[in-house]
Write a structure and sequence with these properties.
Elements: E1 2-3, E2 6-18, E3 24-36, E4 38-44, E5 48-53, H1 64-75, E6 81-88, H2 98-113, H3 120-130, H4 136-139, E7 143-146, E8 151-154, E9 163-167, H5 175-180, H6 191-195, H7 201-204, H8 210-216, H9 218-229, E10 234-237, E11 244-248
Parallel strand pairs: 5-6
Antiparallel strand pairs: 1-4, 2-3, 3-7, 4-6, 7-8, 9-11, 10-11
Helix pairs in contact: 1-2, 2-3, 8-9
């Protein structure tokens, strides 16, 4: 079986509180976008994990797909071994949720492959145990996320027909680095009310990480400025970076960066 985990962008991101468990409470709107990995699983004699495409740093056993399999085996101890093939295309340290998407799509794929018949809410519970953004990718539709990112609420966002430019410069921003510079606070405006009116997005739809990351990496601020000069109706850094994206009502005529991973096409 094969599936195609997609990336996401964040429309607004507020860091609202530091939690006792070491995590942070957030408020954000996550939207799926058409940038994909490819994930294949085949029942085999032993479990093998092969990766091609972009290199994944770190120890293989820490990969969230393998952790998802281990998590399922706690409740379903007779699961067969699988040969896992991951073609990695979504860059790491980019704020696009690629690792979280792989984990969530992996859970969904295992659910089908092993005929577990688990409903979405059950899969979301497993996904939330793997990572803060993982649960979002189970239903994979625009959601407002709160708590660590695992509390999800449907939101009416229609970006069909709009176009997106993703610019990922050769900068890796670790989650720990990003959170080290923020001062958690409750937002003054309602995210849901801002999202309901696109004319407010440029001035009121804020990613809190930009205030501490842009001074350290001024090229990211310059990319955001250029996207607006190209005609974007909204531009921002996604997640904790370092991807900066622009949303356009019409297809942009010119792309200025060799670091652009994916350019335009209607959003998911």
């Amino acid at each position: 079986m094969i599936c195609f985990p997609n990336a996401k962008i964040n429309l607004g991101l507020h860091i609202t509180a530091k939690r006792k468990d070491g995590y942070h409470d957030i408020e954000t709107c996550m939207v799926p976008i058409p940038l994909y990995d490819a994930l294949e699983m085949i029942v085999d004699k032993k479990t093998v994990f092969d990766v091609s495409g972009l290199a994944i740093p770190g120890d293989e056993k820490d990969n969230l797909i393998l952790k998802a399999l281990k998590l399922l085996r706690k409740d379903f101890n007779d699961l067969p071994n699988v040969h896992i093939n991951l073609l990695k295309n979504i860059p790491m340290g980019a704020g696009l949720g690629g690792g979280s998407a792989d984990a969530a799509f992996g859970l969904t794929l295992m659910n089908k492959l092993f005929e577990l018949h688990l409903e979405d809410w059950f899969l979301e519970d497993y996904a939330a145990q793997l990572g803060s953004d993982c649960a979002f990718f189970i239903q994979n539709t625009p959601k407002i996320a709160t708590g660590r990112g695992e509390i999800l609420e449907l939101v009416d966002i229609d970006l069909k027909g709009d176009h997106i430019i993703l610019v990922k410069p050769p900068i890796h921003i670790g989650t720990k680095e990003a959170y080290a510079g923020v001062n958690p606070k409750k937002p003054n405006e309602s995210l849901k009310e801002i999202l309901a009116d696109k004319s407010l997005w440029k001035t009121l739809l804020v990613n809190d990480f930009e205030a501490c990351i842009f001074p350290k990496y001024p090229e990211l601020a310059a990319i955001k400025k250029q996207l607006y000069e190209m005609g974007a109706y909204y531009a921002a850094m996604s997640g904790s970076g370092s991807t900066v994206f622009g949303l356009f009502g019409e297809k942009p005529k010119k792309i200025s960066w060799p670091e652009t991973y994916f350019t335009f096409g209607g959003l998911l």
